Amino acid sequence: MVNTLETYSEKLGFDYTIDVNNIYDIMFNQWIVFSFLKKDSQYQDTLEMTDKEAAFLLSQMEHFQTFCLSANPFIKHEYYKKTFIRLYDRINRCDSVKQLSHILMIRTKYEQMSYLNILDGNKYQEEAHDIYDLYLNHSLDRKAWMKKMEKLSFSVVILLILFYKRDNQTEWCSWNDIVNDSMEDAFLEVLKSKAKGCSLEEMELMNDVLHQIKLPMIDFY
Fold it and tell me: Contact at 8 Å (CB) between 174 and 54?
């Protein structure tokens, strides 16, 4: 609890021990959300969410309300019920982890991937050229792209997503950000279609990659 409140103070720039107006909402919201996220776990060391947990919460909103009302009977009390309904409505209006971060405390960790040594041109040709050529093949129509996507391994699909994220400077940090991106682009529609077919395990892996890896900008073609 203290860790969550200290993060809250850091984000808003005031001492939570002095300004206590919002402490009830903060702790209630985090506690209720974690009763859902950690329903299969008996231990947690913080009430702050990770980006992965935030993305999972957004993808499971159809189950969130039902579970919380059954698992936390005290919510039936009128006072707590109003707080919960307010929380549910706010989360339900969020389309991305970034929007959710204005409501809940989310830990952020972002690492940029960089090469320790200059990438040898021959090595690039061997390991990356075919995949990047595939990505740049704008002559393919949507149907042809979908057919190719079906044959690609999940790791290659993630790499294509990282290429797209870098080249279009999107702010994706989760699976949910991809499927809810409203930009009109034929290749994006193919990526979204592929992402929507992901299993939970693949979705979590994609969230980890988007959260932790940022491709360097292109220095040559």
Answer: yes
Q: Measure the N-to-C terminal CA separation of the chain; round to a whole number of Å.
A: 50
| Residues forming beta bridges with residue 106, ordered by sequence position | 49
pLDDT above 60 (res 220): no
Q: What is the CA radius of gyration of the chain?
A: 21
Residue linked to tokens 């008996």? 42
Q: What is the residue whose two structure tokens read 């290749």?
A: 187
Burial string for 72-100 (b: 16+ CB within 10 Å, else e) reads eeebeeeeeeebbeebbeebeebebbbbb
- Asked if residues 53 and 124 have their Cβ atoms less than 8 Å apart, the reply is no
104 phi and psi angles, rounded to 5 deg: -120, 160
pTM: 0.44
- Model pLDDT, residue 90: 92
CA distances from 146 to 26, 187, 215 (A): 44, 10, 24
Token reading at 129: 């050229």
201, two tokens: 């395990």
